[in-house]
Amino acid sequence: MMRELYFHRDERRGVEKTFMWITEELGELGRAIRKQDEQGMKEEIADVLAWLCSLGNLLNIDVEEAALLKYSGVCPRCKKIPCECVFQ
Amino acid sequence: MMRELYFHRDERRGVEKTFMWITEELGELGRAIRKQDEQGMKEEIADVLAWLCSLGNLLNIDVEEAALLKYSGVCPRCKKIPCECVFQ
Hints:
Two copies of one chain form a homodimer. By secondary structure, chain A is mainly α. Chain A has helices spanning 2-13, 15-34, 38-58, 63-70. The longest helix of chain A is centred in the middle third of the chain and has 21 residues, at 38-58. Chains A and B meet through helix 1, helix 2, helix 3 and helix 4 of A and helix 1, helix 2, helix 3 and helix 4 of B.
């Protein structure tokens, strides 16, 4: 869906600038959290995901598929549900 | 799924440190892109999404739902498919 909406623009913008957009949106998410702005948090977390999908489209990576491949129901490190890794 | 796997740890870690983890993983994604490490890109993009979901769980935000709400098939700014906004 994000591909259909935005790929023509993502492609023109390129990987580097799209990466910068993610960090910009992540900064906005940080500010919304700091200000305890609940509506803002929702919007900014959606924006970070949207830009991550745009980046994935540019890199030919299906973000959801990549995540499901790595986190397929068990922790990829300890293989447990829930995760029992000792690191924090 | 991420909630079941990691919420007990996310909760102990807290919002701030979870936010820091996202930025750390985003940095690793940046490095994988710079090195043109395709396997690394897939893994790191999965990690960024996983940490974003962890943060969402802590903030009681369903990341996918928030994204679908904002990007419901049309661009939230210009309302067009594909997006026709003039800004880059």
